[in-house]
Amino acid sequence: MASGHDGPDTGYLLYRELAGWWPLISPPAEYAEDAELLTAILDHTDRPARSVLDLGSGGGHVAAYLADGRSLTLVDLSAEMLAVSRQLNPDCKHVQADMRTVRLGRLFDAVLVHDAVDYVTTEPELRQVIATAFAHTRPGGIAVFAPDHTAETFQPGTGAGGGSDASGRQASFTERTSDPKAGDNWILAEYEFTLRDTDDTVRVVTEAHRLGSFPRRTWLSLLAAAGFDAAARPGVSSGNDVASRRVLFVARRPDVCG
Fold this sequence. Notes:
Blueprint: H1 22-25, H2 32-43, E1 51-55, H3 63-66, E2 71-76, H4 79-88, E3 93-96, E4 108-113, H5 123-136, E5 137-145, E6 157-164, E7 170-178, E8 186-196, E9 202-212, H6 216-226, E10 229-234, E11 247-252
Parallel strand pairs: 1-2, 1-4, 2-3, 4-5
Antiparallel strand pairs: 5-11, 6-7, 7-8, 8-9, 10-11
């Protein structure tokens, strides 16, 4: 499932009043394989990325794996998710802002847009996010986009996950993904969350999320239009048994000539 960011103009309960359950719903350990691939990309550029901007950082589970030896700035729209991330990543800078429009006035060695970009469902908004990434990437630096789905790789499926903590809280979820209208740029993810608190009270919450699913050619065209040299490469398959093969878009901002 998406890494913990609520997207433009949404008010999903998962990233608001349920944010405190995020480390149990989607435990940090589930991000280790993804982070290993991202670390390899960041470390094997012309100049290893030491300053990283994470757009749509959510609960900070990806950032926790990337912080060693790097300076991270984490941007998310949800104040509640940023509060969760601060507990896990106290040494990172946290900024509440919209990844479509934020401008921090500085450049980074790398910009990461993990699967929070799934909550962008229109091409104009995707263009805005890419423009934000370009505006913050130093010449010669890279931006990495890691959507859960592209139009070519999406397959309807089901999944489940969850975890517990030392206090005795338990959380689990089931997920069903579908494409209600073939040929558009979005899919539907339907969740059921079961939350057991320390006093054994149980709450069940259902929620449907609309997620982006753009064709690869759209991604590459918009990245090129923004000024990036971009390529698609295989990513880590999304977890929780949902049938989808990930694609990463690795985009380099050209060096300044002369």
